[in-house]
Amino acid sequence: MNGRWTDPLVPATDGHTRLDDDAMRGLKPAWIRTRGDLNGAEQQNILNVVATRHPPTIEELLTDGYLRGLHRAMFSDVWTWAGTYRRTNPNIGCDWHQITVNVRSLLDDVKYWIEQSTCAADEVAVRFHHRLVFIHPFPNGNGRHSRLAANYLVTALKAGPLTWGSELNLPTSELRNIYIGALRLADSESDFSALVTFAKN
């Protein structure tokens, strides 16, 4: 692993993606030495995007190009490969050869859910988020990218905001456990109730 790190990468068992050597070679800031440094740099990049980016329309958002561009904007200060689909198979996600077709299939499905009103707007956004996480298109940042994309979608649908557990007043570790548990329930049982509840609280 990259010699710049002085603390171990988060193990795959807690839901984080392992960053392989190829991904690590794309790290831009020379001052980053720890996972905490990395998290801080990525968070600042994301905050800058949230503060300045114009929320897209449904038509703008639901394109392969917009999703790549959103990831690029969120992480381009930190990673050279921001906005580029991964070309390896980490511990989670579909086979990398299938990313493009799976993303396009998801976008077609979301458009259908909206046109046919198959479920409430907040559930459409949460299902969109879940499938993006499941595909895991990028080497890193998939959860944060898909949550912001879902936030944009629910705004475009003129529904209430998604807060992703921020109103529960729980420690970050507990929030992550609830979130991962809700994702896994959706994975295994196609039961989105816990994930929708978490996203709205």
Quick take:
The protein has 201 residues and is mainly alpha-helical. The chain has one domain: Fido-like domain (Fic-like fold, Orthogonal Bundle), CATH 1.10.3290.10.
Overview of the molecule:
By secondary structure, the protein is an all-alpha fold. It has one domain: Fic-like fold. 55% of the residues lie in helices and 0% in strands. The chain contains nine helices and no strands. The chain has helices at residues 21-24, 35-52, 58-61, 64-75, 99-116, 121-135, 142-156, 172-189, 193-199. Helix 5 runs antiparallel to helix 6, helix 6 (121-135) runs antiparallel to helix 7 (142-156) and helix 8 packs antiparallel against helix 9 (193-199).
Q: What is the H/E string? A: HHHHHHHHH
CATH architectural name:
Orthogonal Bundle
Look at the structure and name the CATH superfamily.
Fido-like domain
Low-confidence segments, given as residue ranges, are 7-13
Q: N- to C-terminal separation?
A: 38 Å
Class by SSE composition: mainly alpha
Total number of helices? 9
Gross geometry: globular
Q: Mind describing the biggest β-sheet?
A: none
Estimate percent helicity.
55-70%
Summarize model confidence as the mean pLDDT: 91
Using only C-alpha atoms, the radius of gyration works out to 16 Å
CATH class: Mainly Alpha
Number of domains: 1
Q: Please indicate the percent range of residues in DSSP E strands (runs of 2 or more).
A: under 5%
Q: CATH topology, what is it called? A: Fic-like fold
Number of beta-strand segments? 0
